[in-house]
Amino acid sequence: MCGIVGIIQKNETKIGEEIIHALQKLEYRGYDSLGVAIIEDDKLIIQKDKGKINEVIEKIDIAPISGKIAIGHTRWATHGPPSKINAHPHVSCDGKIAVVHNGIIENFQELRRNLKEKGHTFSSETDTEVISHLIEDFFVNEHLSFREAVIKAIKQLVGTYAICVISTNAPQRIYCAKKDSPLVIGLNSNRIFVASDIPAFLDQTQQVVLLHDNEFVEIRSDGYNIFNLISMEQITRAPYTVSWKAEMAQKAGYPHFMLKEIHEQPNSLYNYVRMKQKSVKKVAEKIYVAERIFFVAAGTAYYSTLTGEYLVRKFNKKLSQSIIASEFESILNLIDENTVVVPVSQSGETMDTILGIKKAKEQGASILSIVNVVGSTITRYSDEVIYLHAGPEIGVAATKTYLAQTIANWDVGLELGLLSGSFNKTEYESHRKKFNQLPKIVKTTITNNEVQARTVANWFSKKKSGFYLARGINVQTANEGALKMKEISYIHCESYPAGESKHGPIALVEKDFPVVFIAPKDHTYRLIQSNIMEMNARGASTIGVIEENDDEIKNLVTWSFKIPQGYSEIFSTIPYVVPLQLLAYYTAVKRGYSPDKPRNLAKSVTVL
Ligand code: AGP
Question: Key word NADP present in the record (predicted)?
């Protein structure tokens, strides 16, 4: 996701300062590059560069630029790595039209080809740049009014967008359009704002107008007109008064970024699923023919690779192994040109992981990475990249990026299953149908378990330690659940394969000792049931993450979290972790800790 802002005002001021101030409030939405467009003395001034906002305004003196109308953008790269040329705003050939955009234009390649054939020249690798040239083409070559040219251009777009356009062809207007990506208007007596999110202007006004999908807006310094993009009917929508305090607004009203990001998971998974990245099939094909397959990652990202390791063994019938990044040395002698290494990393900057893949590449391995940050270091060592499209994750504890990493592992696994004949095309299609439902399943899981998570957290918060146990592919889920609890509530929790707990760890169990079981109705179900009974016999308080309507286990455990049916045998490592994220979050809050900034931790560990 990116942050976009527009300001139009009656009086001329140093609008450069205003637009930067508003963009700084949106830095949590994207921060790999910054840009502004300002109309000053009938000239369109563009200032932009790669880097965080403070780095860019150090280099470029934007604040003193005066004017009455400006748009700005903080970028979270999706198409094209972070760079000055890829930063927004993007302009038309004649330099008179500037566009900022948040979203993904799915048909941009086709539009770009057609516009190039008409003589337009492009300077960036972004999808967004087609918008400025499209408007120019309709305005200059089809002699439409500028407003009509903007509308016609937007109607050509397929995908998601929140767009702001300014031009010296219409120097008293900001034209905007919204579909799927957020866009709101803020207004006070001096100026009108338009932005991706309320925080951009909340310290200037609490009068807000929410825009809906398929709406086109024409903003003047004294008002705004909203139209339905399909019918072009004008819509009347009065402002409402938002009650958030400024610091709450960046969290969309949630008390912490971590809870906001847990709740963002349906949307971030939908962003991943919708992208249908071609690199997924390429990664599966390279894994399929490789002799040795190693996943490499750290922390939560490492746990996500256990799904990939499991699926390669199951579908490819080859020994594959997930390696903790800092221990990559241990398998270096097994790496050659017949080896595939799959680094998984949210930041793409984890030094342990980078070092491992550098050595693997030197020894001829193919590097097929799964990464969130476009253009990050790991992607630059990679032969193929699958992007998470999860947007910036501000909470130090990984949540939405963990689910995105895990779904990417499942995505590759499905292609591998088809390639290896583990299932036929019909079975593949059926799996794909369920795969596409995962965003909805996660949403239901959050809705159905948040109250229970708070209840269990009240009890768990008084504990000093606990176990997280599972079997099969969900040992990964136990690992991640325990890590979440450890890293934000500081309760010492260990995860084990449930069968392993008898070989020592069970000695720790005493009355009311917390033991969390991940117990989907898969092939491990009966064995997990007996493990639960073993723990109950020793006085443990057991918590089950179970399939809804599973009364057998519900009656065995002290508390249960319910997962929608149909996701026990396949994709279970996605919904079954969600209650554990909520449990860790509410336990930390109950213990008086800040989940967003856990002690001793950094968001990205760029040292060894
Ligand atoms: C998990 O909550 C932590 N933030 C940490 O374990 C993290 O997953 C690990 O440091 C790997 O980071 P990366 O995904 O950016 O490589």
Answer: no
